[in-house]
Amino acid sequence: MPQKNRTVNGVLGGLLGVVGLSAVAGLLVTASVTPVLAMTGLAGTQALTLFDELPEVLKVDTPMEQSTIYANDPDGNPVALASFYEQNRVPVTYDQISPVLYDAILSSEDKNFYSHGGVNLGATVSAVIDNIKGTSSRGASTISQQFVKNVLIQQCEQEVDTASETYSEELQACWQKATEATGSEGIERKLQEMRYAIQIEKDYSKNDILLGYLNIANFGGTVYGIEAASRYYFSTSAANLTVAQAATLAGIVQNPNIYRIDRGEQGTYTADGVAQNTATDGYKDTLDRRHYVLGRMLTNGKITQAQYDEADASPITPAITVPQQGCQAAGRNAYFCQYVKSIVENDAAFGESPQDRRDLLRRGGLKIYTTMDFRIQDPAAQAMADIVPANFDNQYFGAAGISIEVGTGRVLSITQNTQFQETPTDDQAFSSLVFAGDRTNGNSDGFPVGSAYKLFTLIDWLEKGHSVNEVLNGRVQTSMKFKDSCGDSPVTHTANTKEIGNFGGNQGSTDSVMRFTAQSLNSGFFAMASKLDLCDINKVADRMGVKLADGGKTTDKVAPFDILGSKNISPLAMANAYATVASGGTYCTPRAIDRVVGPDGADRELPKSSCTPGVISPEVAATAAYALQGVMTGSGTGAVANPRDGTPLIGKTGTHNQSQTMMVESSTKVASVAWVGRFNGEANIYQVRQNGYRVNEMRYPLARTAQAAADAVYEGARFPDPDNNLTRRVLTNVPAVVGMTIEEATAALETAGFTVSVGAPVDSDLATNIVAAQDPSGQTAGGGTVTISPSNGEGATVPDVTGQAPTAAGAALVGAGFSSVDFAGSCNAPNAKVTSTDPAANSAAKKSTKISVAC
Q1: Which residue, 11, 337, 671, 742, could crosslink 666 as a Cys pair with Cβ 3.0–4.6 Å?
Q2: Which of 576, 324, 574, 550 is nearest to 449 (CA)?
Q3: Residues with pLDDT less than 70, the chain
Q4: How many CB atoms lie within 10 A of CB 227?
Q5: Cβ-based neighbour number of residue 484 at 10 Å
């Protein structure tokens, strides 16, 4: 077994030392090589300056390494979700490789590795001259030189554009350039290897060089490094290789394209059309090479005769484990994985260009630690699998769940009903789209979120100083006007809200905003919006981090029906908006990555994230939460999604055109969203049953399960008390309509937000179409019912005759049209004065009514 931590300075072993070796190398060029160079047409001065042009200090680039995405288990231990690689490589430390593997490599490739200074001069001179003559292209390279060769190949491969149409051909060219060049190119390559080998022997320990070689070397196809080779070919680790396995891998690395043992009957190459090195012939070429390696190990005393006999007699029996890269390996966590992958490929923290970011993911050896919490992810994913089919009618049916931590923006879970597959397919049960995300992160175009968007009308209502206890006329109306200040100049939209109506054909009612919210009454929110500005409502959404799934702003195009959630938005954006309310008004950008570690063990820069307090005021947030709690209790539309574990919750339901459904709910710690609907088209999902559920009601158990899991881990607290001013009882001035026509009075009262009821005619001398009385008058709760009573046209007003003498009073009453006047006996007294009449003064009465006069 080779010694550990033994540097080149201690193993010069009869050579001239590194400095002397450099001189020998120079002499080699001038004395041995230059004459032959001249014969081949390569100028001697060009070769002589070759060393001078190389860097003084060899800097070995980090080899391409696979990147891995992790999540922490409930005990805080990282669990790999998926890996991404261009070259399947798992770097290991010196102690993670079996000593027998070191013995096999050194015995067959470089038995004097620990005693030479990096270059075998005699063998190298012969190889150079043979290359010049064209009689051979043999390498005669030490482990140090082979390490250099692999580094140069790696450098070349890292410069190849992975998006290039000739990618495979360019990779092959890198290998050929570094290994198969003859003539002058062969000389240059060999001299470069020598110079680099000399340099690394100065800068690195022998063990570092040997380990570097075993971690970078190719073992066939996309398998790189001894650990990946051990796992791939024998389903074991480099630390647990047997003698036979170690000798096999040591043989493969000598010529991986020929000796690889993973191609069965196809073999690794053909001669005269006949497959070679196949399973049928027992991998004869590899077996012969293994026999050679074992023989060298025996000769060098690294194994006993018994070990040799046993290993040499054993057949080569591959136990291939094909590594599965990409998010498909993450199983039901694949969509969380894919969301994280899209962040890496799209965020500037991982590179300037898309290609740089893709290359970093597949070559950069990143360890990406996500925010996923298995304590929520597992039960949510199980509920998704149990409740929602992947596809049942080939009409683009989808479902997604997401949970996000309040106050941090950390994404805790992402689930989806489809099975993950990167390869496009016509089977709608498979998809690579992340329905919970948007076009940038998830390649999804989002969905109309329905009444979940009413949150922003509620917030704007409160920010304008309105109360949740204000009463409005929330009946469906054929013509409503809505202000919109988003364009170049303010406009007023007119809409027939009766076309939308309410769920189940409900005609609406006059009620409070609290009630409108709990029952998700469309016509009630139209009544609220008519007192606001549509632009401001959408600006609230924008301020709370909501954008269209395609990246556009919610204010780009404004229409009255926006308040009912007709815009395509991601479930993640909606979860985060409700989390902003639950946090007391602090908006946090969503983040799915906690930490990224590079191959050097250093932490890398993360995508930018921040939390901004005061996006909405604490008073508005608390009062909105007060109203939204009504959704989750009693007869609220989301009550069925409440896990009823004692955790206070806010929430909101959403439905769009019977093709999209959403349930949002949140504690003070975690917000969860469940979406079920069509990710393309608008086929009806109502009145359809699958797996024992109405499809439009699947959102409830999905959200309930996720929120229950979150409540068990992240204990939600009581929401703050609402603001007194924003919960006040609001009185509204009632327009005075007596004397108006029925039509005029109705219009005036409805414009003021009241419902109008026409009562029975009353006695009045007004015309029959004129309002003679109203109830109430003065002030009352806004939006209430005002009863107006028209005149019957048969009455007169009793004049006020108080204080008059009986004779004068009688004349006045008769003059007003009353034909029957009855004076009390007291009115016969001298100097008597009228004290009252019945009916009273200024009241209306039929002209035939007897007027009783008291004195």
Answers
A1: 671
A2: 574
A3: 1-62, 122-140, 162-163, 167-168, 175, 178-184, 186, 271, 499, 501, 504-505, 783
A4: 22
A5: 20
